[in-house]
Amino acid sequence: MTTLRIEHAITDYQLWRRAFDGFAEARAQAGVRSFAIRLPVDDPQYLMLDLEFDSAGPAQTFADFLMQHVWSSPASSPGLAGVPQTRILDLLSTSER
Fold it and tell me: Is residue 79 within 8 Å of residue 9, measured between CB atoms?
């Protein structure tokens, strides 16, 4: 399992979320298996998004798509503030209770 982690500032979570939901089909076609959205408890104007993929190749391809076609246009990325940071992570181990 590979995670594309995205972190960035936002101006309005609800506005950002509507835009995020509008890309559901693009995420599915790109191979996103699941996602998790996290807001720091001390900063509601920042979020961390984890998109889960089967491998690093599709994760990198989707990160490139976001940079070139989504984040490059304010109309495509309302609620976004600043430049998103991305990182591709491989899962080494996990634990569940």
Answer: no
Q: What is the pLDDT of residues 27-60, one digit of tens each?
A: 999 999 999 999 999 999 999 999 999 999 999 9
Distance (Å, whole) CA 34 – CA 48: 14
DSSP classification of residue 14: H
Of the CATH numbers 2.60.40.290, 3.30.70.100, 3.40.50.970, 2.60.40.1930, which one belongs to the domain with range 2-90?
Answer: 3.30.70.100
Burial class (CB in 10 A: 0-12, 13-18, 19+), 82: exposed
